[in-house]
Structures are given as C-alpha cells and as structure tokens.
Design brief:
One of its GO terms (biological process) is positive regulation of B cell differentiation. This protein is mainly α. Helix content is 62%, strand content 2%. The protein folds into four domains: 33 residues; 109 residues, Recoverin, domain 1, CATH 1.10.238; 99 residues, Recoverin, domain 1, CATH 1.10.238.220; 151 residues, EF-hand (Recoverin, domain 1, Orthogonal Bundle).
C-alpha cells in the first residue's frame, strides 16, 4: 500500500542519513589530521629541517635539590663547589694595584677646563681609558654608566672622582657579597641568625674601633649588632635575611665605618655598632636588673628611659613578646630599645602598633586610643596635673594621621602620615605626651636661647 511504501522509503532515507553523518565527521577529522601533519612538517623545516622537534631538550634546569642531612658526600661536594665559585668571582674583582692603575689612566686622560676643583673627562677619553684599563674594567666603561654620572657640565663631561668612587663602591659591594656568601651555609642567598653572628664575630678583630672591647663582652656585642639587622630586615620574623637586603641597607656601612681609626666621638655615639653605643645599651640593661638575675621584670623595665612609660603599655609588652617565666631577656630587650629609639621607622611602628592593637584587628579605633590614653591621664593626676580631655587628644590624633577610614587608623596610615612617632609617644609615654602638649613653649624657649647665643657672639 501507499502507506507501507512511504514508511519503507522514510525508514530507508533515515538510515541512509545516519550512515552519511559519520562519513562527514570522518572527513573533518581527516582534514584536521592533514593540517596538523602539514603544520608539523613546515614548522620542523623552519626550525632546521629536523624530522622531530627536540627543542624541549634546550630548556635549562632551574631546580636543584639540596642534599639531605645524611648525604654527607653530596654536602661536601656542594660546599667545595660553592667555595671554588666564590674564589673565581673574587679573582674577577679589581685589586689595589689595578685600581691604582685605573686612577692613573683617568688622571692622564682628563680633559680641561677643570670644573671647580674637580678633574673632568670627556666621553671619547672615557672610552680610550676603557680600552687600556684591561678586561676587568670593561663593565664599568659603558654608555649607561657615563650617562648616570653626567650632570650639568656644559662640555658633556663627567667627574673623574665621581666615576672612580662609583667603581670603588661597586668593587666593595661585590667583595662584601662574596664575604657574606661564605657564611651562607644553606647556599640559598640568605643568612640565618647564627650565620650573621659568625660573620660579625670574625669581623671584630678587623675593626680598630673595637680594639678596646674585652673578649668576655664579644658575645653581648655580637647579639647587640645582629639584633639591629634582624629587627629591621626581618619584619615577618622568619629567622633569615637576604644577603641582597643586607647590602642594600646602610647598616653594613655603619658597621664597617668602625675601620676608621680616627672616627669622631659624635659619629661613635650615633653609630649603633660602636663600642660606646653597645656598652651604653648593655649598661642600661644591667642597671635596670636590680635583682641581678640576668632578666628584667615588668617593674624593672618600668624604670627605662625617663621612667614615664605607662603600666598599660608595659603590660602589653610582656603579653605579646617573648619572655621567660614573665621576665625579659637581653635579646627581647634589644628589640624593645630599637623600637622606642627609632619610632619614625616602619619596623619600629609595626612593633608598637602590635601592642596598641589589643584585639589584633589590624587597626586602632576610638576605644583603643581611649584605653591607652586613660593611663596617661592617671599619670598626670599622680603628678598633680589636670588631665587633658580625651576628646581633644583623639581629634588631634585623627587630624595628624588623616586615615583613609575616618574611624580607624591602620599601620599603613601611621607610616604614610609621618606622624607615627608623635602619635605613639602620646599614647604610651607621659614624657612624650608632655613634650607634644608643650611643643610651642619648647620651640619658643629654643628661639630665645638661640637669640641669646647670637647676642653673646656679637
């Protein structure tokens, strides 16, 4: 019948359609395979005509497993290879004779006229010196270095002395890096506390300004010196410092300044690493330690400085930082001193901010400020002064800091405001608050004194 014929025809057509779809898909797959084959062929020919791309074999190795503690031979091999590497790097540096030769060549090629009292050199003469100075000096005689030292000379010259000082500084930095790397036991570009202690201990005999130190004091001196590095360069307290960070900061310059046998008294007093400074800090610690047990209690620490730190602040110090049976050792005391003597520095503000942020919220609010300032008000009553209103002080603090959030002061707000030292002094130290409160009177007195001195001079 017509219906049966139509049904058969439809079924046949449907089945035929089903057979065509896989055929169409196979064609597409064959085309893609052919494209891939052609692409691979032309790409390998372009890369050099190899049948197989082996570019992955040129990828450099970037991970080297450190030897385990029980792999003694591998550890020794690694230490020896590092020592040989550092020796080779040391030989690449300019020695004293080569530096003297460089200075002689620079002086010989100076180009008139003299600028003030400084001998100058032109770019052409600079290149001539570079050709004659030897292969070790080649890296210093580049257009980039010349451009760095080029200032306002009308003839386009640079100062010979400035260039020579630049070379000396570079040589010193590389020498120091190699010296520090010798103490890098892990070989990973950082020093642990014990590594830096060994470095400074072996450095002491080479510093004439420390000749007067008794050997019994060496361990305390080393502890005093190392704490400054770790307090400022290891804010996360990881127990290690990058050698690059040590070279980038000025602390090593201050330490090596002690090589100068004629260092002035003022320079010694302002240098944390000098013998007078180290003895001062340790002497203060001994004077505070009334029971002579080698540790400081909260009561003993309360006499620090002008003895005007609030008890609330001292409570927080003993709550937050490492103590032994409720007493503070010399290392923890050094962190305390570094924080209070350098309140403008971000690391010191971080130390104090942690104490003020009682609930570890990451910010100070009105409650936090009020909590600490109440202790200042109580001290004012004890000294017979009328307490200052907290509302006035709170408004002044927020005006000084100008935080992003008008109700919260973060550590970054304190750092950005450049008023962190003043704000923290107002909250933790009666003497600091009094100095801030009477700043106008103190400035006026200073002006009167300077005027009197001027009259005396006339």
């Amino acid at each position: 019948s017509f219906y049966d014929d139509h049904r058969r025809t439809g079924t046949t057509a449907y089945k035929t359609k089903e057979r065509k779809e896989p055929y169409s898909i196979r064609n597409e797959e064959e085309k893609k395979a052919e494209e891939t084959e052609l692409f691979t062929k032309y790409y390998t020919e372009w890369r050099g005509g190899k049948d197989k791309d082996e570019s992955y074999k040129t990828i450099p190795r970037f991970y080297y497993r450190l030897p385990a503690e029980d792999e003694v031979l591998l550890q020794k091999l690694r230490e020896e290879s590092r020592a040989v590497f550092l020796q080779r790097k040391s030989r690449e540096l300019l020695d004293n004779e080569e530096l003297q030769n460089l200075w002689f060549l620079l002086d010989k090629h100076q180009v008139p006229p003299v600028s003030g009292e400084e001998a100058m050199i032109s770019y052409e003469a600079y290149l001539q010196v570079g050709e004659r100075a030897g292969p070790k000096c080649k890296k210093f005689f580049t257009a980039r270095v010349y451009a760095k030292l080029l200032h306002n000379d009308p003839y386009g010259r640079i100062s010979i002395m400035q260039f020579f000082n630049y070379v000396m500084r570079k040589v010193w930095l590389h020498q120091t890096r190699i010296g520090l790397s010798l103490y890098d036991v892990a070989g990973q570009g950082y020093l642990r506390e014990s590594d830096l202690e060994n470095y400074i201990l072996e450095l002491i005999p080479t510093l004439p300004q420390l000749d007067g130190l008794e050997k019994s004091f060496y361990s305390f001196y080393v502890c005093t010196a190392v704490r400054k590095f770790f307090f400022f360069l290891d804010p996360l307290r990881t127990g290690k410092i990058k050698i690059q960070d040590i070279l980038a900061c000025s602390f090593l310059d201050d330490l090596l300044e002690l090589r100068d046998e004629e260092l002035s008294k003022e320079s010694q007093e302002s240098n944390w690493f000098s013998a007078p400074s180290a003895l001062r800090v340790y002497g203060q610690y001994l004077n505070l330690d009334k029971d002579h047990n080698g540790m400081l209690s909260k009561e003993e620490l309360s006499r620090y400085g002008t003895a005007t730190l609030t008890s609330v602040f001292l409570d927080r110090v003993f709550q937050e930082y490492l103590t032994y049976d409720g007493e503070m050792d010399y290392k923890t005391y050094l962190d305390f001193v570094l924080a209070l003597e350098n309140r403008k520095e971000p690391a010191a503000l971080q130390y104090i901010f942690k104490l003020l942020d009682m609930e570890n919220q990451g910010y100070l609010n009105v409650f936090s400020l009020n909590y600490f300032f109440r202790a200042i008000q109580e001290q004012m009553k004890l000294h017979g002064h009328e307490p200052v209103s907290f509302q006035d002080v709170k408004d002044e603090i927020f005006d000084m800091v100008k935080p992003k959030d008008p109700y919260k002061i973060t550590l970054q707000d304190l750092v950005n405001s450049c008023q962190g030292d003043t704000v923290t002094s107002i909250l933790i130290d009666l003497n600091g608050f009094w100095t801030y409160e009477n700043r106008e009177v103190l400035v006026a007195n200073d002006n009167d004194n300077s005027n009197t001195a001027d009259l005396d001079d006339t």
